[in-house]
């Protein structure tokens, strides 16, 4: 079945394009829509930003995505807009007009992506909905501009959000397929968990595609596609979000954007961290299950899951089985997932009475950057002493790990005037960090110890400002 979608209101069937061709390449080379630019080809700069519409409650919900790492098979059955599709018979779209009037353009290379982010920011909101400067900065965090400076761009966003949103005409995208074949590639899109497990068992060597924010780099940078792939994005059971008993359950295919509100309500520190995972474009596509499955040593969610003592729910031919995430992560980008299994869900236990969760990410840029170091802590203090502590770090070893020596040092220790002595020695027993282009081993060791001291300040002197999280 050919990939079919709406592009700027027109039905497109991409029968002769490989399913793992990037959407950016398709737009520029097949459709000659060259307003969408390639800046970095790895989902960092936002020049390639497009808007994707998905039906939700009878209305279309528009979200931004990086087309440079988005596979063509991922927009099957969707509606897509590029900068060329915004203006109508009346002329430019307001998002384009305000940017020009605010002098928010200069060389113009990044401008189409900024326009699309502004467009998505205003779509779907009520006429009287207030958009704060924080909302604006978050919406634009994934769009980098080298020459204009951000003040006029933010001014344009304020002006756009102060006006009533433009009402979009209703549209009906085509029905998505379950089997996409072209150019020697086969991408399978199961609809149920049973179908997914059956396909995984039949094709254990197939590439599993969730949000493709990591895998998308292969066709984007290496120009190599996926001959056989299985997508998880339409499996209904992998989209569940909610409480089951005393566990918050996130289906493996739940995106960061979809799960943010629920996670933030239950674990505010985790929600704040999720807002710093990539950009809004990345959070639209990236999934909780994908971040766990890649098992990167700097995967942002992993230290938090470890600190919470969370479980992963695995599904295979023999049924479902839970496993502690601490046992699931076994090495550098290695997990205990069997060839015929898939990640079905992540189960986060609620905090016990008196427990607090903290998570801090250190990176060279506050927004849109990979962690240099990330520390997560679940702490309970009674009577001025630590009665329970779970500490986990990313960026300190070949995988995200708990810190047992640190936990042993601090559990039972007084927690009032100053943190206990011996933090550096305990961390040295737990980790032997490496030096790389992000930081030296010495920096990581020192910064990890300072995060523990920050934990002490945050819990003993709550009025002390602790907002700076970039290096």
Characteristics of this structure?
471 residues, alpha+beta, five-stranded mixed beta sheet, 20 strands
Descriptive report:
This protein is of the alpha+beta class. The protein has 16 helices and 20 strands. Strand 1 (3-7) and strand 2 (10-14) form a beta hairpin. Helix 2 (94-101) packs across helix 5. The protein starts with a strand and ends in an 11-residue tail after the last helix. The mean pLDDT is 93.
Mean pLDDT: 93
Report the uncertain regions: none
Helix content: 25-40%
Q: Give me the side-by-side strand order of the main sheet.
A: 2-1-5-3-4
Approximate shape: globular
Percentage of β-strand residues: 15-25%
Query: Tally the helices: what do you get?
Result: 16
Spatial extent as radius of gyration: 23 Å
Instruction: Give the N-to-C terminal Cα separation.
Output: 49 Å
By helix and strand content, what is the structural category? alpha+beta
What would you call the quaternary organization? single chain
For the report, how would you describe the main beta sheet? 5 strands, mixed
**Count of distinct strands:** 20
Describe the SSE topology.
Elements lengths: L2 E5 L2 E5 L8 H8 L18 E8 L2 E8 L12 E3 L12 H8 L9 H12 L10 H8 L10 H12 L16 E4 L2 E4 L4 H10 L4 E3 L7 H6 L5 E4 L9 E4 L2 E5 L4 H11 L1 H7 L5 H6 L2 H7 L7 H6 L3 E6 L2 E6 H4 E3 L2 E2 L6 E8 L5 E8 L10 E10 L2 E10 L6 E2 L1 H7 L12 H8 L10 H20 L11
Parallel strand pairs: 1-5, 7-9, 8-9
Antiparallel strand pairs: 1-2, 3-4, 3-5, 6-7, 10-11, 11-16, 12-13, 12-16, 14-15, 17-18, 18-19, 19-20
